[in-house]
């Protein structure tokens, strides 16, 4: 290498060093926005070119000094400076919370000071505040109810309401309203259900809360048959349905006297749904003294209701003229019965809600029994039933 070449190389080296030292430090990007979900690690980028003899510091929105070069100054172990490359002075904040949101500044101590701003946005998943939200509620028909679902999150969550069928038939039905409060005016028993609020703000996961609304109302009693006929010595069953919330107390009365369970009388309740029961009264070996007026009674703390029915004697061995009133039956036209040629049937329904039971058993509509059964009658039984019906009609027409 000649002396001329060496002199040129040294001159070039000094020129480059002078150019580097003479250049002012600069940031790669002046302003950056960073969005992170709460609980994650936020990386606030800061890349400096031509730093030279100057120093890099980080400050927060309160102008508190966080770091000096690569050393942490603040007493917060979550904060550190990470330098994957020489020019990088990235600020890391681990386990970010909503309090960390705001403006951060990467500064170079030049004169004047050079600043790069980084805005940190912290998203917070939706959360339902239990102690500020509605619990299960019991109301009376006609009341106005406010269902509250108090939620927080960043951004603020959108709340959607659904109605869930407790019977599981209709599934989930969306209510055409949104917001943290659902108002139901003049509530009725048909509003008795489970309501669900669902909150979501675009940050997983979605959160929800279920509120059970129970609507209370006084009892309503219905008897299935206003009049029922039965032969002496047979067994019979009287039935009524009671709808109430809460169900409360139920019993049968005869001539205004309460009937207690014994070998002769047996009252039993069967659940139809959450608010409805069937109350039956089984009477063994019917006697003359058993005929008369029976009352189905139900009560709860909101009120009471009752409905009456008549059990009367029926003679199944002859047909009485329907045109003449029956003095023993309160002046009402007697029911047509089958002759001895017609085999007895367990269940017979006659018009005007009157039932007699020649074979003993429960007074029930024959059509209802057929609809409620999953089995079909044999063809021979159907033919025999048709023959019996035609025979009975012919006897009636001959009178």
Overview of the structural elements:
The protein has helices at 3-22, 366-372, 379-398; strands at residues 26-27, 31-37, 42-44, 48-49, 56-59, 65-68, 71-72, 79-82, 90-93, 102-108, 114-128, 137-140, 145-148, 151-154, 158-164, 172-178, 181-184, 193-200, 207-223, 227-230, 236-245, 249-254, 257-258, 265-273, 276-283, 292-300, 303-313, 349-350, 354-357, 361-362. The strands form six sheets. Strands 12, 15, 16, 18, 19, 21, 24, 25 and 30 form a nine-stranded mixed sheet that branches. Among the domains are: 25-123, Sandwich (Immunoglobulin-like), CATH 2.60.40; 129-217, Immunoglobulin-like (Sandwich); 224-313, Immunoglobulin-like (Sandwich), CATH 2.60.40.10. It is mainly beta. It has three helices and 30 strands.
Helix and strand composition category: mainly beta
Give the C-level CATH assignment of the domain at 25-123. Answer: Mainly Beta
Principal-axes shape call: rod-shaped
Distance between the termini: 147 Å
Supply Rg: 44 Å
- Main beta sheet: strand number and arrangement? 9 strands, mixed
Ranges where pLDDT stays below 50 over 5 or more residues in a row are 11-22, 318-399
Name the average pLDDT: 80
CATH homologous superfamily descriptor of the domain at 25-123: Immunoglobulins
CATH topology of the domain at 25-123: Immunoglobulin-like
Binned strand content: 35-45%
- Counting DSSP E segments of at least 2 residues, the number of strands comes to 30
CATH architecture of the domain at 25-123: Sandwich
How many helices does DSSP assign? 3
Level of helix content? 10-25%
């Amino acid at each position: 290498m000649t002396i001329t070449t060496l002199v040129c190389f040294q001159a070039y080296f000094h020129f480059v060093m002078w150019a580097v030292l003479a250049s002012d430090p600069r940031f790669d990007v002046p302003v950056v926005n960073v969005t992170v979900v709460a609980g994650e690690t936020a990386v606030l980028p800061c890349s400096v070119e031509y730093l030279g003899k100057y120093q890099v510091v980080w400050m927060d929105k309160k102008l508190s000094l966080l770091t000096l070069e690569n050393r942490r100054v603040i007493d917060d172990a979550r904060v550190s400076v990470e330098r994957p490359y020489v020019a990088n002075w990235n600020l890391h904040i681990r386990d970010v919370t909503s309090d960390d949101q705001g403006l951060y500044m990467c500064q170079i101590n030049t004169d004047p000071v050079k600043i790069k701003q980084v805005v940190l946005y912290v998203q917070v998943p939706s959360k339902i505040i239990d102690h500020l939200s509605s619990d299960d509620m019991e109301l009376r028909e006609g009341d106005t109810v406010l269902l509250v679902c108090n939620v927080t999150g960043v951004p603020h969550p959108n709340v959607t309401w659904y109605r869930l069928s407790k019977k599981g038939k209709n599934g989930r039905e969306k209510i055409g309203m949104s917001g943290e409060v659902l108002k139901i005016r003049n509530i009725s028993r048909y509003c008795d259900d489970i309501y669900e609020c669902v909150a979501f703000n675009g940050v997983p996961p979605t959160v929800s809360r279920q509120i059970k609304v129970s609507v209370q109302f006084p009892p309503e009693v219905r008897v299935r048959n206003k009049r029922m006929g039965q032969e002496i010595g047979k067994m019979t069953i009287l039935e009524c349905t009671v709808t109430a919330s809460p169900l409360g107390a139920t019993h049968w009365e005869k001539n205004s006297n309460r009937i207690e369970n014994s070998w002769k009388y047996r009252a039993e309740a069967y659940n139809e749904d959450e608010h409805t029961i069937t109350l039956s009264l089984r009477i063994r070996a019917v006697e003359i003294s058993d005929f008369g007026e029976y009352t189905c009674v139900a009560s709860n703390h909101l009120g009471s209701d009752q409905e009456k029915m008549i059990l009367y004697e029926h003679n199944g061995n002859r047909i009485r003229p329907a045109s003449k009133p029956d003095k023993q039956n309160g002046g009402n036209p007697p029911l047509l019965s089958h002759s001895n040629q017609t085999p007895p049937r367990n269940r017979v329904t006659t018009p005007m809600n009157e039932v007699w039971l020649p074979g003993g058993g429960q007074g029930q509509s024959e059509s209802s029994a057929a609809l409620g059964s999953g089995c079909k009658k044999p063809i021979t039984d159907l033919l025999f039933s048709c023959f019996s019906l035609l025979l009975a009609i012919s006897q009636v027409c001959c009178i």
